[in-house]
Amino acid sequence: MNERIRHATLDELTLGYQEDETGLVCLQCEKRFNKGEVYPHEDRYLLAEAAILAHIRLDHPPFYETLMQLEKKDVGLTDKQKEVLQDFATGLTDKQIASKQGIAHSTVRHQRFVFKERAQQAKMYLAIYQLVEQATQGRKQDEFLEIHEGAKMVDDRYIITKKEEDKVKNNFLLSEVPLRMKAIPKGEKRKLVLLRLIAKEFNADKRYNEKEVNQILWGVYEDFATLRRYLIEYGFMDRTTDCREYWVREGQI
Predict the structure, then answer these.
(1) Co-location of 93 and 61 in the same domain
(2) How far apart are CA 52 and CA 12, in angstroms?
(3) From CA 233, how far away is CA 73, in angstroms rounded?
(4) Which of 46, 103, 166, 170 could form a disulfide bond with 50, CB atoms 3.0-4.6 angstroms apart?
(5) Residues 163 and 227 in one domain
(6) CB atoms closer than 10 angstroms to residue 9
(7) How many domains are there within the chain?
(8) Which pLDDT tens digit goes with each residue over 156-210?
(9) Same domain, yes or no, for 81 and 118?
């Protein structure tokens, strides 16, 4: 998930674009349309807002399809639920969906009802949460680290505050610039804090061979093999099946 989508408001996600001081930015490809400028479209010219809507409609699939490609931890939907929602979007009847999915007609009707209930609950939750945030503005709150894109089996290990991060840095780093570790911690949260930092030692746009990965990790800590394994296991890096190429997973840096 790109950072614009992650931080977009509900209204922005519905529209498919984000507005800032100078213009409008497409959430799918980050193409910018500057305010006050006109853009050619077929046999006419469009202002920024009309131009970006035309761009979204013509140059991208429906935005709900892009959002449904996100992982379950991001959208709370199983693959089967995504398929049924896609069928709803394409206009299939409940009977057609039941036949296509190999499920009972009554199951499809029940799922349609469940989706509507969840949408209603989500709307109320968002209202409550926003009101609570407004009520707590100005008070000191724990700042949580964002969960990285490749996180696997997300659980309490990933609930890490900025204060906890600072404590781990103080206890396990010799220096932050350049990054040098004293030891590899045993606790899961502590490992995650350090692995986030280690992932930033790599260029997000580059593919590395194993020797290059080892050289970078050896500069951080002598047990580079363990660090390399943890980066893969915890979803910060990925590699080819033959282990010839390594890369930082999207959204880690």
Answers:
(1) no
(2) 13
(3) 17
(4) 46
(5) yes
(6) 11
(7) 3
(8) 666 788 888 899 999 999 999 999 999 999 888 899 999 999 999 999 889 999 9
(9) yes
Domain annotation covers residue 192: yes
Q: Enumerate residues 6+ apart whose C-beta is below 8 A from 138.
A: none
Say how far residue 36 (Cα) sits from the centre of its chain: 32
217: tokens are 């990790």
Shared-domain flag, residues 88 and 58: no
Place of tokens 């570790």: 181
Q: Read off the tokens for 229.
A: 């394994």
Listed residues 65, 94, 115: the one ending a domain: 65
Backbone angles phi, psi at 94, to 5 degrees: -60, -40
pTM of the model: 0.58
Q: What pLDDT score was predicted for residue 3?
A: 77
Phi-psi region of 21 (alpha: psi -120 to 50; beta: other; left: phi over 0): alpha
Tens-digit pLDDT profile for residues 38-63:
999 988 999 999 999 999 999 999 99
Residue numbers of the domain that contains 103? 77-135
